[in-house]
Amino acid sequence: MKILIVDDFSTMRRIIKNLLRDLGFNNTEEADDGNTGLPKLQTGNFDFLVTDWNMPGMTGIDLLRAVRADEKLKTLPVLMVTAEAKKEQIVLAAQEGVNGYIVKPFTAQTLKEKIDKIFERIENA
Amino acid sequence: MSSDSNQLDKSALLEKAKCLVEMLESEQTEDAAIEANIDEIMNIRESSLFQELGKMTREIHDSIMNFRMDSRVADLAHSDIPDAKDRLEYVIEMTEKSANTVLAVVEKGTPVAEKLSGQAQQLSEQWGRFRRRELSADELRSMGQEVENFFSESETMMTELLAGFTEVLMAQDFQDLTGQIIRKVIKLVDEIENNLVELVRIQGGHKITDKADVKKDEREALDGPQVPGKESSDEVMQGQDDVDDLLASLGF
Questions:
Q1: Measured between CB atoms, which of A15, A87, A100 is closest to B237?
Q2: What are the distances in angstroms from CA B62 to CA B66, B73, B208?
Q3: In whole angstroms, how far apart are CA B138 and each of A76, B120, B212?
Q4: Is B121 at the interface with chain A, CB within 8 A?
Q5: A7 in contact with B at a CB cutoff of 8 Å?
Q6: Which of A59, A79, A76 has its CA nearest to residue A68?
Q7: Is A87 close to B223, i.e. CB distance below 8 A?
Q8: Given an 8 Å threshold on Cβ–Cβ distance, is A103 in contact with B179?
Q9: Whose CA is closest to B109, among B168, B55, B183?
Q10: Is the ipTM of this complex over 0.90?
Q11: For the segment B64-91, what is each residue's pLDDT rounded down to a tens digit?
């Protein structure tokens, strides 16, 4: 399982990376916004994307749109981990095809639950 | 200064000047009449000066009124600055919480690590005596028991320490959230600076040619981290449970 973590704050990337490692996901890469993340996704054979929303350059929602518009990437599971907590934003992310949504600050348990749920749903589909 | 309003009334001035020359050339003219004529010439000059002064006063007045009417400035003073203060308070709160969490883990974990290291040292000494065949049968049995205890205890302690590491890891999430909040405050300070610069320009009597551009793209419209007690409307989720409920209602 290869996972890409996209967040403009390196501390948050490290936190997510370490939490994923604790959950048994050792194969992770990082990018600091959509502009650097998208090319990685297109060439890197990733199985899962964890992205922030508010980033300089390409935002997380635009990255999600780009992923869903890309023939090769459109089925990639995307988990959004963001401080944006407005109802309309969550609804928008859902409409754009996000697979899970976590608001910061979050717990290790929440991350585990959401990832489990996403893969459970994919397996059952 | 515009040239037309500033211009002296030259024809009136010329008339008065000719009159003055005539008066000075004629020997019958009284001093008082000459002085009156000079006064009139000065009046012509002063009236154009006053006109210009009046115009400048009007410009400054209009500029100041416009500046005060600009609702953005009012917003800055009434809501944005107090809001920024609350947000900065929240930054202090979050960094303090994180520091306390990390310190607590260290305080809790240090004795655990010390105990582990103490027991390992003790066992190592006994192991040395065993190798030198200095242990009695009873002591050997007791060492066996201690080794067993050490294995089970060290497992529990390690689990405790690892849980502490996860806690320390999670406590670092403040950096992202406070970073976003501080960036917002920096933007606000920037805007206040622009407004102050504008105020200084008004004071200087210069015309304002370009207004501080308040651009709002999609990213800047994002709200960032929720600050407790702020934006607590129905439109803002109060936590992960709210988000889960909302997503569930959307069929997730």
A1: A87
A2: 6, 16, 11
A3: 64, 20, 87
A4: no
A5: yes
A6: A76
A7: no
A8: no
A9: B168
A10: no
A11: 777 766 777 778 888 888 888 999 999 9
